[in-house]
Amino acid sequence: MLITLEGLDGSGKTTVWEALHDVYPDAMFTREPTDSWYGEAVDRSIAADDADPLAELFLLTADHADHLSGTIAPALADGGLVISDRYSDSRFAYQAATLAASDVEIDRPLEYIKGIHAAFSRPPDATIYLDLGAREAAERAGRTNKFEQDGYLAAVRENYERLIDAEPDRFVRVDASRSPEAVIARVEEVLAELVDE
Ligand SMILES: Nc1ncnc2c1ncn2[C@@H]1O[C@H](COP(=O)(O)OP(=O)(O)OP(=O)(O)O)[C@@H](O)[C@H]1O
Ligand SMILES: Cc1cn([C@H]2C[C@H](O)[C@@H](COP(=O)(O)O)O2)c(=O)[nH]c1=O
């Protein structure tokens, strides 16, 4: 079973993901961007304010393809539980916002990015969305790079809402404005239900 954690920068995904290690010691915990050389290229692109938007999308997509074939698919084939801190929805939400704000002439960036993934990717079985306002998210994240900005994250949040509207059964929304303890407890509750289903 593939469970993904999604949300804005600073929404608390990593805090939750780390807490879950003790609850599911046999699960595979993974994340995107990965720590492979593809992921290192992604990190360089994220740090570059002048990165080409399409090149950045394809670097992130290459990292995802490698993550899927080398890590996620084998674990799922073994019948394991995989919990990923970010996955394909991050591309749909973030890079659609980047493309929409760029000079690249793609009419429906979110649908375009989904289309690229449809050919090879594997959708999550369920996605826990840590819901937080853009300003609070940027503040928590520290506003240290081009993504951790109020306006950009507001556009990303709108894209997440579109994704949730399109697949309400896959997403479980969790209020990420509560204390870390309350958010972790709620995610644990949701996960227990998902894993028992
Ligand atoms: N529920 C919460 N309330 C207040 N602060 C929180 C909460 N959860 C996490 N934080 C703090 O917010 C910051 C970002 O948390 P975290 O790294 O878990 O978020 P993230 O979603 O993984 O962010 P990013 O996507 O930027 O890596 C950290 O300083 C963390 O301690
Ligand atoms: C997978 C993925 C990530 N991003 C962005 C979102 C964050 O700003 C950074 C790094 O992620 P982290 O959770 O802070 O480690 O990358 C993105 O724009 N698109 C993606 O597909």
Q: How are the SSEs ordered, and which strands pair?
A:
Elements: E1 2-7, H1 13-23, E2 28-31, H2 37-47, H3 53-77, E3 82-85, H4 88-100, H5 109-118, E4 126-131, H6 134-141, H7 150-166, E5 171-175, H8 180-196
Parallel strand pairs: 1-3, 1-4, 2-3, 4-5
Mean pLDDT: 98
> Globular, elongated, flat, extended or rod-shaped: what is the shape?
globular
- Assign the CATH superfamily: P-loop containing nucleotide triphosphate hydrolases
Order of helices and strands: EHEHHEHHEHHEH
The percent of residues in helical segments reads: 55-70%
| Cα Rg | 16 Å
- What structural category characterises the helix and strand content? alpha/beta
CATH architecture: 3-Layer(aba) Sandwich
| Major beta sheet summary | 5 strands, parallel
Number of domains: 1
Unreliable residue stretches: none
Straight-line N-to-C gap = 11 Å
Family: Belongs to the thymidylate kinase family.
InterPro entries: P-loop_NTPase, Thymidylate_kin-like_dom, Thymidylate_kinase
Protein name: Probable thymidylate kinase
Catalytic activity: dTMP + ATP = dTDP + ADP
